[in-house]
Each structure stands twice: as structure tokens, then as C-alpha cells.
Specification:
The complex is a heterodimer of chains A (157) and B (233). Chain A is an alpha+beta fold. In chain A, helix 3 packs across helix 4. Chain B folds into two domains: 75 residues, Ubiquitin-like (UB roll) (Roll); 146 residues, Alpha-Beta Plaits, CATH 3.30.70. In chain B, 24% of the residues lie in helices and 15% in strands. In chain B, strand 7 and strand 8 form a beta hairpin. Classes of the chains: A alpha+beta (157), B alpha+beta (233). At the A-B interface, helix 3 and helix 4 of A face strand 7 of B.
Chain lengths: 157, 233
């Protein structure tokens, strides 16, 4: 399993072999192929590019964009910006937690939904707002968000 | 030679020397924490901030700012002491710095700075993060609760030992010093067990196992000694 991931990653980032300056490019490529960057993939990136593992981990954990754990089938991005905060994003987040059993950065146990917090979706008129994959859901309240989540999980599961 | 003034004393510096190096040679003490002789300067802790009068009072880290012709540097003033003390307070408040329970008490650079700068209490609320201690290594321990993120261990490991075991993970207040792709330390494939990181650590975050507080005296100068003895190409 580990070796399969490692050889897959090594193949993916072959063009960057021996080029430490291409670290972020290589990590992007790995994440778009695997969905996340597990430790064995980080090790493969380190070896292929000639970057110390500690520095690869440093970059992976520094940038919020990179993930080290698998993402769910759907990504929920809840806006935590000022307008949404004022209009009750906290309550919506609480409802999401109740419904999915996980908070920000977590993935529901059924592997269907990953919850992320973002600072603004540029749709303050719809506050509080969230996106699930490419779909925007606005003017949320706890009841509404629970309904949406049930629909998504029901439909997919 | 470059001529500059530090605390109204005329000082000479070689091209490429920093304000800190020039000050030290002239016998002017500027407090430091993340700086360590023989390691690359990082400017991470800001304790060595000095004021440049003829740059409109701009504050720069002495350890990472090259000496320049005609600089009028203030290294000691009420303003600087207040700033340095605030920085110290923030460092104390960020983690669990409780001297009474620390193996480095009595020979800790953070504690010494607090004494030197007259920081007798912390005005910010302590954050009290609960960080797990790594005692897996047979000889050494890592307690991130006492870490000030100066990066001396990281640089000692990379620049002197060449092992690159230590790195920073995460960011901001949640940053941790961790080996390779994460702990435990004992499982590190790159660590040589040389202990340079422990000697470089200014506080009790990296310590030797089986040693009492009074025996836990660090020798950070060992890094400069090691690099000086090295044959040069």
C-alpha cells in the first residue's frame, strides 16, 4: 500500500526530480491526484526532489490549501467572514457539527462531507452563506442547513 | 571599514558585518534570543530590536541588519526596553513557561532576559496550550510547552550537523518544532543523536534525560567551536 502510493507519487512528480525549488508545484500535483498528501507521499516528494522531509512537512502544514488527511466526497465551505458572522454563521456551524459530528477541518464519519471554514465567499448579501462543492446556499439558519445536509447525504448514500 | 554610531559611541564594522556583530566587538551588549554564533541569523524573536535614528526611528533586528555607513543606532532606551519586555511577555504567555517546574531554571536564556529587562510579571493572559511531550528518544526529551520557536535547534541541525531532522510544522501560534514527517523523535530516520539541538536550545524545550535541573546547563557555544575547528576548503 505504502509502496504503491510512493511509486505513484514518484511517477507523478518525475518532471520535478532533483529540483527543490519546485516543491510547491510538486505538492499541488500530488494533491490534485490523491486529494490529500499523506506522510508516505510527503516522503516520496522529499526523496524525489531532494528536499529534507522536515521541510516538506513544513510547507505542507504551513499552507491551509494542502491537506494531510483524506477529503470527503463533498466539500462544504462555510463562510466565517464578517457579514456571515453577524448574521449567525456560528449557529449554522453548530448545526453542521450536530448533523455531521465534525467541526471545521473534519470529515464526516461516512466520508461524504468535509467541512471547511473560509473567510468570504463574496456573497455577503446571502449571509450566512456556504458552498457545497460548486453549489451556493444562502440565507442559512440551523434548520435549513440540516435539511440541506440530509438531502446531500441521503442522495449520495 | 564602515563607520557607524551605536548608543552615541563611534563603532567600526567590516563590510558584511551586522549591527549586532559591530556592537559586540565594541563591547555594547544587545540582548538576543534566537541569535546564536555560527548559525545564520533569523530575526525571529525581535529581542535584539534597535532603533535607527536617521531612518526615522525605524526598528530593525540588530542580528539580521547589515552595518551601514553613517547609521545612528540606539541600542538602549526606555522605548526599546519596553518593547523588548513586551516581546518577552508575549513569549511567556504563548506557552507554559513556569520556571519552578522547568529543568532549565537557573540557566535559561528566557529567564535571564526577563531578569535583565526587568520583566517581573506577565500582563497578558497565558494561553496554556496542552502540547504533548516527546520522550521517545533514549537520551533527550522535547517539551514544546517550553519552546519559544527561536529555531536554533532547526538551524543547528541543518547548518552544523547537516541532518535536517528538525523542522517547523503548522503556522503562527500553533507552530511546532517536529522531527522529519512528525514524531516520535526516536523513530527519526535522519536524527544522528548528536545532541547539538539540545545544546543550542536556549530554554528547557530540548533537554537531556536523567539530568537534574542543576546539571542541565547547556553549552550553546559548542556550535561555534565545532564550526571553527572544521577544516576550510
Amino acid at each position: 500500500m505504502t509502496t504503491a502510493t510512493e511509486s505513484k507519487v514518484a511517477e507523478l512528480i518525475k518532471p520535478f526530480a532533483g529540483k527543490p525549488s519546485e516543491l510547491i508545484q510538486a505538492l499541488h500535483r500530488v494533491q490534485s491526484a490523491l486529494g490529500h498528501i499523506p506522510p508516505e507521499a510527503q516522503a516520496a516528494v522529499a526523496r524525489t526532489l531532494g528536499v529534507p522531509p522536515s521541510q516538506v512537512r513544513g510547507v505542507v502544514t504551513f499552507y491551509h490549501f494542502f491537506r494531510t488527511t483524506p477529503v470527503g466526497k463533498h466539500t462544504l465551505r462555510l463562510c466565517l467572514g464578517t457579514a456571515c458572522h453577524v448574521r449567525g454563521a456560528e449557529e449554522v456551524l453548530k448545526a453542521i457539527q450536530e448533523e455531521l459530528g465534525v467541526g471545521l477541518g473534519g470529515t464526516s464519519a461516512d466520508g461524504l462531507v468535509t467541512v471547511e471554514g473560509v473567510r468570504c465567499l463574496g456573497a455577503c448579501g446571502l449571509a450566512p452563506v456556504m458552498m457545497v462543492d460548486d453549489e451556493v446556499y444562502g440565507k442559512l439558519d440551523p434548520k435549513k442547513v440540516k435539511g440541506i445536509l440530509r438531502r446531500i447525504r441521503g442522495g449520495a448514500g | 571599514m564602515i563607520s557607524l554610531r551605536i548608543d552615541d559611541t563611534p563603532v567600526q564594522a567590516e563590510p558584511g558585518e551586522t549591527i549586532l556583530q559591530a556592537a559586540r566587538r565594541a563591547g555594547i551588549r544587545i540582548p538576543t534570543l534566537c541569535f546564536l554564533e555560527s548559525l545564520s541569523p533569523r530575526g525571529a524573536c525581535r529581542i535584539c530590536l534597535v532603533e535607527i535614528r536617521n531612518w526615522n526611528g525605524r526598528l530593525v533586528p540588530a542580528c539580521a541588519t547589515p552595518a551601514q555607513e553613517g547609521l545612528d543606532v540606539v541600542a538602549h532606551s526606555d522605548r526599546l526596553t519596553a518593547l523588548r519586555r513586551t516581546i518577552l511577555e508575549l513569549l511567556f504567555a504563548e506557552r507554559n513557561h513556569i520556571c519552578a517546574f522547568c529543568v532549565s531554571s537557573g540557566h535559561c536564556e528566557l529567564q535571564d532576559l526577563a531578569t535583565e529587562l526587568g520583566m517581573d510579571h506577565v500582563t497578558f493572559p497565558y494561553r496554556f496550550p496542552a502540547l504533548s511531550v516527546d520522550l521517545s528518544h533514549p537520551k533527550f526529551g522535547l517539551d514544546p510547552n517550553r519552546c519559544v520557536l527561536c529555531g536554533r535547534c532547526v538551524r543547528a541541525c541543518a547548518e552544523v550537523e547537516g541532518a535536517f531532522t528538525w523542522g517547523f510544522s503548522g503556522r503562527g501560534v500553533g507552530t511546532l518544532v517536529e522531527p522529519d514527517l512528525g514524531g516520535p523523535w526516536a523513530k527519526s530516520p535522519t536524527c544522528t543523536g548528536c545532541g547539538k539541538c539540545v545544546q543550542a536550545c536556549p530554554v528547557g524545550a530540548l533537554f537531556e534525560k536523567g539530568k537534574a535541573t542543576s546539571e542541565q546547563v547547556k553549552r550553546p557555544e559548542i556550535l561555534a567551536e565545532v564550526t571553527e575547528r572544521r577544516p576550510r576548503a
